Amino acid sequence: MAKAQINEYLPDYLTSPGEVLEDYLDAYGMTQAELALRTGLSKKTINEIIKGKSPITPETALKFERPLGRPAHFWNNLERQYQEDKVRLAEKERLESHLDWLNRFPVKDMIRLGWILESKDKLKLLEALLNFFGIASPEQWKDVWLQHQVAYRQTNRFEAHAEAISAWLRQGETQAREIDCQPFDSKKFRAALNNIRGLTRQAPEVFIPALVGLCASSGVAVVFVPELPKTGVFGATRWISGKGVIQLSLYYKSNDLFWFTFFHEAGHILKHGHKDIFIEYDGLIDEQEKEADAYARDKLIPPQQLRKFLERWDYRTHAPIEKFADQIGIARGIVVGRLQHDNLMPHTHGNKLKVFFRWSDETPKKIQ
């Protein structure tokens, strides 16, 4: 969720402490030479402060107190504000040279989803994007993304949409940090997955809080982040601050694919190391993905039970599918999806037994 905007006055011009000092001298009818005499500073030092060539140091500020009738912190604050404004204006000029960087991100979609605040000022929009990523400049985005690429497999797949995918991952990271998790415990997580399997028969308003709570109690944060256009990413697994993170996009709307994706990511958590980042998309095949697929497949529908069902099923009617799903305690659509995947049922058949989810119009974090 985007942070609330704070109104802050940031001048687009500079007023140096020397200019203020010169105004005080004029008001007092005091020359630079006289101020030098009264403070014990050299005339050259006073002149260089007025011309902006030298700063007002804390020692100088203290010496200005009595002759000019203003406390040292007044002069110190002038100098501090001046230096800060000077750096900020220089930063503004530098950022203005990076405005084209905005065009590489799906900014409109990020605004629509509430990840960043809308602004007609491109510079403010650029600053909002930098704040979203928690980086100082676009150069740092390159450094962070390249650093993360070391942990990504099949990185060539992401080159065309690296910015959008990085935004999706960053939003997941932000949401995951908000979830209070217990230390990771693989035994507790396996037990939680047993309970979560039964949640496949529940509606989103029931299974989502239960799913998130059960996983958090065993050290895994589950976050739901809407997909961004053209990325084709439907899931990701990684470790952040010692806790596992499963990120789901609802790219596939049917409940069979949603739950298969979740248990696939859970397989990565249980079977693979804490250093890799697994990003799921169509066409990704390697040994670790096959292992995660096998875990999800067998966890949802145990092989022995499936074999017994297939021995009795006529490969046509739906009633036995419904009965089998009820017997093993999972959603009927999951059985249909498995049969379709294994080419035991046409993809045009049995879809009425599936449940289809969509993001709520009220909040992009809610599924219905």
Automatic annotation (TrEMBL):
SUPFAM superfamilies in the record: lambda repressor-like DNA-binding domains
UniProt cross-references to CDD domains, sorted A to Z: HTH_XRE
Keywords, comma-separated and alphabetical: DNA-binding
Molecular function in Gene Ontology: DNA binding
Coiled coil: none
This protein's record includes keyword Transport: no
Domain HTH cro/C1-type, chain residue ranges per copy: 21-75
Protein name according to UniProt: Plasmid maintenance system antidote protein, XRE family
Species for this entry: Desulfatibacillum aliphaticivorans
